[in-house]
Amino acid sequence: MKPIVLYMRKLDDRLKWMPHQKTLYDAFVSRIEEEQLVEVKISKKTKEKTLPQLGYWYGFFLPAAVIAFKELGFDTLYEVKVPYFEDTPLDICVGGYPVTIQTSEDTVDLLFKTLFKMHKNLKKLPQKRKMTSEEMSELIDFSLGWAAENLGVFIETPKGKQ
């Protein structure tokens, strides 16, 4: 049986069902066999990243960062010199052929997520689709700071409430 996520709000020192949640709960419970073990997790709901945050990241920050990298001469990222292909910048070889990793919004996005992972000492690469608004703000702040400190590039900050 597929898990269910239900929402409650604390009112008067008690958790109260949000609209229609009790109905979903009752329907779910009716499908559980007698004496079957069920796992229940209770956690505080965190605020998900906002559309303005994602709009800033994809619509402004990444394009500006790509331009900055290219203006500084980084048309490719992740350059490694391999003796066999001495004149070819590459990160990987596929089937013996060098693959150049071009500077693009996707590769710059990956670069900043990798740097953020190292900075925060995370076990896995952060995934924006799972980030809270606070985590997304941290990624944006870190990336703006890294670009300024390491590249001397000052990308305009987001305007308004993010």
Strand content: 5-15%
Q: What share of the residues lie within helices?
A: 40-55%
Weakly predicted, low-confidence segments: 80-85
- As a whole number of angstroms, the C-alpha radius of gyration is 23 Å
Strand and helix order: EEHHEEEEHH
Per the principal axes of the C-alpha atoms, what is the gross shape?
elongated
Mean pLDDT: 84
Structurally, the number of domains stands at 2
For the largest beta sheet, what order do the strands appear in spatially?
Answer: 1-2
**Number of helical segments?**
4
Distance between the amino and carboxyl termini: 38 Å
Computed structural class: alpha+beta
Q: What is the β-strand count?
A: 6
Word description of this protein:
The protein has 162 residues and is of the alpha+beta class. It has 2 domains: 1-44, no CATH class; 51-151, no CATH class. The chain has 4 helices and 6 strands, in the order E-E-H-H-E-E-E-E-H-H. The chain has helices spanning 21-30, 51-71, 105-120, 133-151, and strands at residues 8-11, 14-17, 80-82, 85-90, 92-94, 97-99. It has a two-stranded antiparallel sheet with strand order 1-2. Strand 5 (92-94) and strand 6 (97-99) form a beta hairpin. Helix 2 (51-71) crosses helix 3 and helix 2 packs parallel to helix 4. The longest helix is centred in the middle third of the chain and has 21 residues, at 51-71. The two termini are 38 Å apart. Residues 80-85 have low confidence and may be disordered.
